[in-house]
UniProtKB/TrEMBL annotation:
<dbReference type="InterPro" id="IPR011059">
    <property type="entry name" value="Metal-dep_hydrolase_composite"/>
</dbReference>
<dbReference type="InterPro" id="IPR057744">
    <property type="entry name" value="OTAase-like"/>
</dbReference>
<dbReference type="Pfam" id="PF01979">
    <property type="entry name" value="Amidohydro_1"/>
</dbReference>
<dbReference type="InterPro" id="IPR006680">
    <property type="entry name" value="Amidohydro-rel"/>
</dbReference>
<dbReference type="InterPro" id="IPR032466">
    <property type="entry name" value="Metal_Hydrolase"/>
</dbReference>
<feature type="domain" description="Amidohydrolase-related">
    <location>
        <begin position="48"/>
        <end position="396"/>
    </location>
</feature>
<protein>
    <submittedName>
        <fullName>Imidazolonepropionase</fullName>
    </submittedName>
</protein>
<dbReference type="InterPro" id="IPR051781">
    <property type="entry name" value="Metallo-dep_Hydrolase"/>
</dbReference>
<dbReference type="GO" id="GO:0016810">
    <property type="term" value="F:hydrolase activity, acting on carbon-nitrogen (but not peptide) bonds"/>
</dbReference>
Amino acid sequence: MTRIVFSGGRVFTGRATEPGDVVVENDRIVDVGIGLDGDTVVDATGHTILPGLFDCHVHFMFSGADLVRSLNTPFSLPFYEAIGNMKATLQCGITTVRDALGADLGVAEAVRRGLVQGPRMQIAVNMVSQTGGHNDDWMQCGAHISPPLHPGLPDTVADGPEELRKVIRTLVRHGADIIKIASSGGVMSPRSNPRHAHFRDEEIAMIVQEANAAGIAVMSHAMSGDGILTAVRNGVRSIEHGVFLTDEGVEEMLKNGTWLVPTLMAPRMVLDQAAAGMAISDVILDKANAVVSQHFQSFQKAHEAGVKIAMGTDSGVGPHGDNLNELTLMVEYGMSPAEALHATTTSAAELMRLGNELGELAPGKLADLVLVEGDAEQHVKAGTLKQAVRAVYQNGVSQL
């Protein structure tokens, strides 16, 4: 076995950085300390060594919010675009993700088998929505405008507990590692309102029951205050976005140990693309503008109260590879740089139930490492972390 030592750098401990070396044998970290030896030395002097980073909310099969472009895209092209999307995400230091809608089992297997380069991933396959909900793509003209359903992407619009039981079992059959639902309307859907709650208690209870039976968790797109509450009290593991989070919602999340994945970048990405000239409807732009300031306030409320937070971006709504901008927004709205790094390492690993293998630089963990030139915490604060990444290792293998 080749023993590689990353020597002379500063190691992120989960709460701060301190001088240290990291030793890797094959795909595992075997030692962390001072003055360690190895067969091969990687000089990390002047660098921060981070664990592999996480993004808990991406969409590799999407490449922006331009409706006209998507309507003129051949069916199979997004699969090829996903190869570049995954590579761009990995190269900014993100070695593990949750794909929250779009990637099917074949996309995940291509990475697992080493056919293409990308982060390891948990996939939701498709998002479960009520009729007229956030994943119902029916337009007023009668057309459906989302990517077409195919053998790897089943229909997941359903109503009532028994229809939903069937949908969850179908998603499990199709390889879902996580179930994603929409317990409120959203910004990007044509006919839903982000302030309205979707699904009733008995429906979400059924979804969670079936997911638990399959040994997987539920994540909920939830913007409205009532939609957050319904999801939390029925046992979802994480709230995605949490835009109109109320004090009652915070209390319920704390009581139930529910996670928040804020995706602060998401509405900004929509507005940035519109400003660049992309074809985005006025309805969607109005919704994006309406949620931005409230989104930040809710994030601050959750953070100050001690709600568990893991990093996610909603990349795919906007460009892939800019994911680390989310950390800077988290700092801008109340987190310390170390807290933001914790949210994208140890906390995210815990949310995804991967804490035994990932999220820390510790003996026995998988050798996912990111070398950042200079002080990683300062880069997070300044918004320059991506530009400072000098090396990315996944399972002990260099990815750059």
